Amino acid sequence: MWCDGSDAENQRLIDQMLADGTLSKLDARVAPGSYLHRSHPSDVARTEHLTFICSRERDDAGPTNNWMSPKDGKAKVAPLFESAMKGRTMYVVPYVMGPLGSPFSKVGVEVTDSRYVVANMRIMTRMGKPALDQLGGGDEFVPGLHSIGDLSPDRRYILHFPEERLIWSVGSGYGGNALLGKKCFALRIASTLARKQGWMAEHMLILELTLPSGEVHYICAAFPSACGKTNLAMLVSPLEKQGYKVRTVGDDIAWLRPGPDGRLWAVNPEAGFFGVVPGTGPDTNPNAMATIGHDTIFTNVAVTPGGVPWWEGKDKNPPADLLDWQGKPWDRTGKAAHPNSRFTVAASQCPSISPRWEDAQGVPISAIIFGGRRARVAPLVFQAFDWNHGVFVAATMGSETTAAATGKVGVVRRDPMAMLPFCGYNMADYFGHWLRMGTAIAKPPAIFHVNWFRQDASGQFLWPGFGQNLRVLLWMIERIQGKGGAIETPVGFVPTPDALNLDGLELSKSAIETLLGVDRDEWVDEVPEIRAFFDRFGGHLPAEMTQSLDALAQRLSVTASA
Ligand code: O2Y
Ligand code: MN
């Protein structure tokens, strides 16, 4: 069936899914137009260990990707597709990543045997007739073959063939594994295209910040999971009344390219949000709550028998008769909603969506933020000295694992540019691409690093919460304007305590000192860890990366003797 993306077609698919139990309708009074899907209990998240880059040379996938040769990948996985769709309908889903009509958009075609995937792709991309119209008579599209197979993790593979610009996915119907436009195309395949064509496919939110003067800045930010990316993308400005407005352009992926004005310009290739539900509440993310108040597909949340969805963090009062994410009566001990339960919703429903979110030319980027979750070491914010230093900061960014992600707490995982699972080629070559891009952008964005998760000695978070992050963004803008006060430290420029607007926050002097502190001994300990991380890349690592590390070590030792 060739999907045209129309409302009528979508309604037919939804009716079929309601009939066969793939979806259930939620209470039309509290969640109008919304549905619940329960995935197979063994198919609840992206599966990095089953995700492969199938380049001819192993070296082109690099040490951080799983690799198979294209020949081996096809020989292993083609048999899993054999007869997999027998008795099912095969849906042909043409889609556009990027605003319709934009010269920077790209077309994909996903062939799938999952109606749920079709319904999600319709929200997450510009799907159906508009995609065929955009393709016109051309043949430049990224093909993707997807079957849920038998959903067994033993017969699950997500393969990317960057040299053919091809995606194969079998054995999963979930999120990043199955909605091929998202991580598979817009990051892994797109990153290889971008490298060849001189642009960048990045795992970044895009936000718009308007100042009382009317001056508008666009900021990209890359964080590993569980660092508040969606919350920052949809931040409610605590200073809205004073004229500081925040709007959302994208929450997950940015395609960036140098513009004719020498700046870096970004488009959000996606049309929707596939966000984590638990933790989303009226206090943490009111914009997300309003966005998902209607016409939303929920996957793996809890629900009352009457169809009211619920998840941890929605409110403090779980309904008495709740069914957990697997549809069993909730025993009130474990999690009611799966920790990776998701909402799929059109970006156009977001109250904070920017009027320019579908601008065909994109938006000009003033700053790029990288961040991680560190109890110590990284200060609240610092600015890189220049582009190349920013690339080093991004390439070495680390985040402490949370129990949900790995089962181990507090282990530092290096996740360069938050792209570790999403870079479609050798990550060291990717650092090289970033460095080259610096020479192609006459007016590069300033680069910053943030850490909202710094703790005091007793393990309490020092920063009062995501809602206050605007204060840090405003310091960045002042730096860009050549104003914000800063001191030079071995790791970068850190705000002087009076340069941050902390009015109204009850932060003690010592808390501010710790938040902005750069502890030499802690950073000295980072150096060999970063060196060991870099060693993994062997001869592919650009010399600039080791030079930046040596320079950091040098600045730290100068500080020591000073
Ligand atoms: O588990 C999944 O399949 C979803 S992963 C995901 C979804 C939306 C945005 N980002 C991510 C991610 O893993 O970075
Ligand atoms: Mn993501």
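^ manganese (II) ion complex. The CA atoms of residues 20 and 61 lie 41 Å apart. The two ends are 72 Å apart (CA to CA).
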